[in-house]
Each structure stands twice: as C-alpha cells, then as structure tokens.
C-alpha cells in the first residue's frame, strides 16, 4: 500500500506540469489517470442521463436555461479532450459554448399518450443512440437531446468528464430548488466503515485477511478466472450489439421498510438482494436444465470513494488540486458474487448479500482496486497497452455490473418545468446487462441496458426485480 501510494504521489506531482502545443502559450490541464482511462478506445464510456419533465418542452426556454447555468461554465464541460505533444490526454479550454452546437432536437413521430408509452419511447431512443452516435471530439464531450412529444431531456456526457455522483451534484447546483422527501437511497461507504469498524487489533487482523483474499480474487479475475457462460453472459464485441433499455421501478420507502427486516442492512443491500432473487428467477425460466445451484455470477459493484456525497463546493471552486477535489471520477468497485439459488425467499437472498457486503466493508478492497486502476491508467499514458487489455479482460471474465447513485435531494426544475424522474445508463461495455439505479423524489429507478440478442426478455427481468422487492416488504410473505 505504501509503495503504491508513493508512486501515485510522484505521478500526481509530475502531472502538474502544464504542456503547450506548438507556439501556443495556452495552458493544458492533464486529465486525471482514471478519467483518462475512460478515453481508452477499449472503454470509451458515455453516460446517458434522462430527465423526465412534467410539461411539454419549450425548446428556446430550455436552451436558455442551460446556457445561463453553471453547467456550461464548468471547466470540464467547456474544455476539449486532446493529446499533448507527448501523447498524454489533456483538457484545453474551449473559446465559448454555443448551445446550438450542443443541442439535438428530436421530434417523436408516433402518437403517445400515456406516461408509460413516453418512457418506453425514451428508452428506445437511448438504446438506439447508445451504439450508433458517438460524441464529436471537436467540441466539449457532451450534448443535450430534447425529445419533443416525449417530455424528456437526455443529457449525454462522456465519462471522462465525471461520474454519476458528480453529475447529480451539478444538476442540483444548476436546477435544484427545494428539498424533497424520500431520497438518500444509499449510505456513504466511508461513513458506514467508520461507524461499523471496531479499531481493535482483532478487527484490523480480519480486515487485512479479507483484503488479502479479495485482492487475490481480483488478480485471478484479471488473469484467468472466468464466470461460467450463461444466457446473460456478454463477450468481446457485445458492446456494439443492438441494445434495449428497460426500467425497474422501486419506491424508496419500500426499500427502507425492507432494510428494517434485516438488522444493519442498507438500501444498497436491499437492491442487491432484489437483483439476486430476480436473476435467479430469470435464469430458471430461460435455462432451467443448464443451471445448477450455487453457480456464481460475478458483478463489479460500483463504490463512491468520496468522504461526502455533496460536491457543490468543489464545483464552485475548481481551483482546488485534482488530488483533493471531489469532482471527477472518484469511484471504485468491489467484486460481488451472485449465486443462482432458485426457490429461496427474497429475504434469504438479502441476508446472503448482506453477509458478503459486510465482509467487503471490513476490507480495503475498494481502496486497493481504486489505486490499482489509477496506477494502471498512468502506465497506459506511458504507452503501455497492457492496462487497457487487462481491464477489458476483467470485464469479459465477469457477468454484469451494477451502480447505485444518490440523486439530487432537491426538487429539480428546468425552465419552470419540474423534473419527474432521473435515470442514468452508460454505453461501451461488453456486458449483456448493465444496471444503474438513481434515487430521486422518493423513487428508485433501476435502468437496465441489455444486448437484446442475448437478453431477449428484459421486461420480465425488470419485473422480476420489482416482484422480488415487493415480496420482501413486511406485508408480503410469499416465497420467491
């Protein structure tokens, strides 16, 4: 750990030197190692944030609201991602932001009347552009899609600009009005660790043992250990396959009620328990003869590495060193093994997941992986092709990925038009299933983007997650 931290410190110090291009005297800011990793050709991830609106869209008013917001003045939203003379990724200040260059107006031709029809059409639109429309590199890496007739905005942002937590805080700062109840569907990992970890000698010994075991498992996944192929497995090139997007909808109050049924459980545990049960249901339906009890499906589960989830002060003051600023990609992951166990009650899935996550929280797995990814990205900047190959191999050796993002705690209103839901998904991963949940306004929307030629019934999968949670609610007691 000490050696890794020393290397990272030396790299961070060296990266503070600004470079120039040709005769230009303009300063270039180096892209952080992890953010640079998202620019790898093998990864190149884009986030799609859909914002449902209560009323029809007024194009000029919405464009004016964004052009007058902090978003277009943010250093990352107003800079180009370029290479310097040494081939390193850098941010170069863009002269000015013209909203017309960043706005795409889509008129939905078919008549839709119900809220569900509109949401389905939005999901279909995102699925289409996720594999067919890359972001242009001659302007800052984001754009805004106005879906006329569907009452929805889709903010498309390259992952190198920042992660989901950063984007949620920016939306709060730009368009937040008043607090809404029912948010906070995820506890901060650092707060949980500080609250739960006993600082005694035996606790440290257990932490080190867990860390050693999980680190060895992570290295194994990078090199040779691979999940057994199932009907939901992705593969090399799957990120380019046609996609479909569906949504599983939860109530945060139900998730809070369920976590009371299992001592010390968290909202995140409840979500993972519902996913574990729903996946078992789906696999039992699609391949009952091929599935054996306790077959393992490994999932990288994203972890927020910040000490606090509120980033507004960092957005307002970007003069801070990138090593200490909360903005950017401050995320890691832990490897969560999901077991196919058909016939279990959803609460049994929850208890099993909680036991796994408790061990993860007692370890330093997320910190080890976070530093590993940073160091890996630095090696890539030095010209090595190994980091990109290893990270892609890791994704090919696991089955799917999950992220749980705390949405804005304030009500979001864009141009006097209240936002009714916020959903996020990403592109360019070789998984057949990618899941992101955002909690906002008392609801938790789990967005699934799937390779539709592999996962042929994503609606049933999303419904299985909803049913699993409903069966965990204290009033319900039927077996899964």
Termini separation (Å)?
Answer: 43 Å
Structural class: alpha+beta
Q: Helical element count?
A: 15
What percent of residues adopt helix (DSSP H or I)? 25-40%
Shape: globular
Strand order across the largest sheet: 5-6-7-2-14-13-8
**Strand fraction:** 15-25%
List unreliable stretches of 5+ residues: 1-25, 187-198, 319-324
Rg from C-alpha positions?
Answer: 22 Å
Global mean pLDDT:
83
For the largest beta-sheet, the strand count, sense and barrel status come to:
7 strands, mixed
Number of strands: 16
Can you tell me about this structure?
The protein is of the alpha+beta class and 480 residues long. 39% of the residues lie in helices and 23% in strands. It is built from 15 helices and 16 strands. The strands form four sheets. It has a seven-stranded mixed β-sheet.
Compile the SSE list and pairings.
Layout: H1 2-14, E1 29-30, H2 33-37, E2 46-53, H3 59-67, E3 79-83, E4 89-93, H4 99-102, E5 103-107, H5 115-132, E6 142-148, E7 152-158, H6 164-175, E8 176-179, H7 189-196, H8 201-223, E9 243-251, H9 252-259, H10 267-286, E10 295-304, H11 312-316, E11 331-340, H12 346-362, H13 365-381, H14 386-397, E12 401-406, E13 410-414, E14 417-426, E15 433-440, E16 443-451, H15 458-472
Parallel strand pairs: 5-6, 12-15
Antiparallel strand pairs: 1-4, 2-7, 2-14, 3-4, 6-7, 8-13, 9-16, 10-11, 13-14, 15-16
Helix pairs in contact: 1-13, 9-10, 10-12, 10-15
């Amino acid at each position: 750990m000490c050696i890794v931290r020393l290397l990272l410190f030396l790299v961070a110090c060296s990266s503070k030197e600004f470079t120039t291009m040709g005769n230009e005297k303009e300063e270039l800011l180096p892209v952080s190692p992890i953010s640079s990793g998202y620019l790898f050709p093998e990864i190149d991830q884009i986030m799609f944030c859909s914002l449902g609106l209560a009323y029809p869209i007024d194009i000029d008013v919405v464009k004016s609201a964004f052009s007058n917001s902090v978003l277009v003045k943010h250093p990352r939203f107003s800079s180009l991602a370029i290479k310097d003379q040494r081939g390193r990724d850098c941010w170069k200040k863009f002269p000015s932001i013209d909203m017309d260059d960043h706005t795409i107006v889509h008129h939905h031709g078919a008549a839709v009347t119900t809220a569900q029809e509109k949401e389905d059409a939005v999901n279909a639109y995102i699925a289409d552009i996720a594999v067919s429309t890359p972001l242009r590199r001659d302007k800052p890496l984001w754009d805004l899609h106005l879906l006329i007739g569907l009452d929805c905005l889709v903010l498309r942002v390259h992952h190198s600009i920042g992660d989901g937590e950063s984007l949620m805080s920016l939306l709060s700062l730009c368009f937040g009005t008043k607090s809404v109840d029912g948010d906070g569907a995820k506890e901060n990992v650092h707060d949980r660790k500080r609250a739960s970890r006993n600082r005694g000698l035996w606790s440290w010994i257990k932490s080190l043992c867990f860390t050693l075991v999980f680190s060895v498992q992570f290295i194994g996944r990078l090199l040779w250990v691979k999940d057994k192929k199932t009907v939901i497995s992705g593969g090399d090139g799957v990120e380019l396959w046609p996609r479909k997007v569906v949504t599983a909808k939860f109530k945060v109050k139900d998730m809070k009620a369920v976590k009371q049924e299992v001592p010390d459980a968290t909202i995140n545990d409840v979500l993972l328990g519902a996913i574990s049960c729903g996946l078992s249901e789906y696999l039992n339906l699609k391949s009952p003869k091929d599935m054996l009890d306790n077959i393992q499906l490994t999932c990288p589960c994203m972890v927020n590495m910040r000490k606090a989830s509120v980033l507004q002060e960092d957005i307002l003051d970007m003069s801070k060193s990138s090593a200490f600023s909360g903005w950017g990609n401050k995320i890691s992951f832990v490897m969560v093994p999901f077991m196919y166990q058909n016939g279990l009650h959803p609460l049994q899935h929850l208890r099993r997941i909680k036991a796994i996550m408790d061990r993860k929280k007692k370890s330093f797995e997320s910190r080890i992986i976070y530093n590993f990814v940073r160091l890996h990205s630095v090696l890539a900047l030095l010209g090595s092709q190994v980091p990109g190959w290893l990270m892609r191999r890791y994704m090919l050796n696991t089955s799917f990925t999950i992220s749980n993002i705390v949405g804005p705690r304030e009500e979001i209103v864009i141009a006097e038009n209240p936002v009714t839901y916020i959903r996020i998904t990403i592109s360019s991963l070789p998984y057949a299933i990618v899941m992101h949940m955002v909690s906002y306004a008392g609801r938790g929307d789990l967005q699934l983007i799937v390779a539709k030629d592999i996962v042929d019934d994503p609606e049933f999968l999303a419904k299985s997650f909803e049913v699993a949670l409903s069966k965990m609610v204290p009033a319900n007691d039927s077996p899964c």
